[in-house]
Amino acid sequence: MSKGMLFAGSLVGGIDYGSIYQEGLSWLADREQNLLALVKEISEIPAPTFAEASRAEHVADLWEKAAAAGGGQVYIDECGNAIYVWREPPPGKPVLLVTAHLDTVFPPGTPIKVKHSHGRLFAPGIQDNSVKVAILVELANLFCRSGLSFQPDHGLVFAANVGEEGLGDLRGMKYIINEGIGKKWPIAAALIFDGDAGLVCYKGTASRRLQVTYKGPGGHSWGDFGKPSAIEGLGRAIAGIYSLSVPREPRTTYNVGVVKGGVSVNSIAAEAEMLIDIRSEDPAALAVMEEKIRNELDLSLHREKAAGAGGTGSGAPQETLQMNVAVVGDRPGGRMPDDHSLVQAVREVAEHHRIKTKMLTASTDANVPLSQGIPAVTVGVTAGGRIHTLEEYLEEDSVLPGAQYALALVLACSRWVVVNG
What is the CATH number of domain 206-308+317-331? Predict the structure, then answer.
């Protein structure tokens, strides 16, 4: 089916979405090289989780230039999110929120230089999520500079948010929804750009992340043999955790993903820690799994203390391990039904762009609005691979179609807000 048929005859709320869509496609096509240059420019600005400021400032600067032509307000909020209020909502009307996360999983100091080879652009973080940020910037340019007559009867806010990856814990989106835009105006829907082309996610996996730390007396491996080792305690606890069963439904998982401790091969470890990731499609099942893991940790520590003895070399009195459990990640879950009208609108756009969709349950920025009953969907608009590795790449020929797909999604969500918001 031709792209040109999308929104055909669609005059909603006084807006000719079909005309705007077709004009927007042409404008983006004419600026393809500008967009590719923007992808490289943004990709080469490091943005590790908790250190996204330089990239946020650059995005805000680009939006300031767009706002000079098209109006609106640009700022960086207290959490570090770059915000462009392109259109404030009329009194009593809601906002459509369109976002892409700034941060990447790569630590400070990771060399980032975009390289081109055989139709692919290689750079750490380029597909997840630098290209989506570039597309978000270009969409703002489109609405500000193309001359399109787009005046929806709702607000429109673009946000390049921090803290989506790992221990960022969705902090940027949490702030936007709870303290920022969501506190100022009602949010009718959220459209998030993330993931590979075809991804459509409107079911958010809830998760909890625990940091478990063991501390003990330490000592010399020979002279203090017999004193409790923090690493031994940690190991016993890990074995206990992996003996726990999970329900068949709803899907629930756990993983010990990081373990560290000790200082040398001939020292009894005085400290060791692990990070545990717990996930579930259902928040209640998540809470049950977390309780089982905490109980197992307590039992493992009790067994360790019961079996403990003083150091045989020093004649020291019995010493025991201490354990501390801290929550370092708390991602709420939520979902929309498969037949939700916003989901249907996204599917219609994907069909017209000949994109084969993959409906996945995952943990994305959409979790936050979904957990509060706000319709939200995360959509992948570009193709790539090897994400979260130094060999990460973006298919160059997916960038323009991805931007055009993103435009169609924004217009479809706008139309949905006009009708349902």
Answer: 3.30.70.360
